[in-house]
């Protein structure tokens, strides 16, 4: 069993970039914080080979896709399908924290 502290030190260490707790050929678990006004990636879109689910723990983010932008508040679980172009944007004025789970397509 593995456990991880989701504390202020973690959020400061992973500001704007993911902190991978586990990443292997089948599964990834990561945490990241998105600062106010930050967009990830900075340009264009991200896309993953497998589906991704994430939980917004605090703050609010927006997820942009080719179909538009949706606001995602704290306490929400969101699933992004494999191959879906997307980006994360924090328009809320304060840091947002997230935990993400990904499955690698086989």
Walkthrough of the structure:
The structure is a single chain. The protein is mostly beta strands. The protein has one domain (8-103): Jelly Rolls, CATH 2.60.120.10. It is 6% helix and 47% strand. The protein is built from 1 helix and 9 strands; from the N terminus they run αβββββββββ. It has one helix at 8-13, and strands at residues 19-23, 27-34, 39-40, 52-58, 60-65, 68-73, 77-80, 86-89, 96-103. A 5-stranded antiparallel sheet has the order 1-2-9-4-7. A hairpin with a 3-residue loop joins β1 and β2. The longest helix has 6 residues, at 8-13. The model has no long low-confidence stretch (mean pLDDT 93).
Examine the secondary-structure arrangement and name the CATH architecture: Sandwich
The whole-number mean of residue pLDDT values reads 93
Describe the sheet with the most strands.
5 strands, antiparallel
- Give the assembly state of these chains: single chain
Q: What structural class do the secondary elements suggest? A: mainly beta
Number of strands: 9
Distance between the termini: 24 Å
Compute the gyration radius: what is it? 13 Å
What share of the residues lie within helices? under 10%
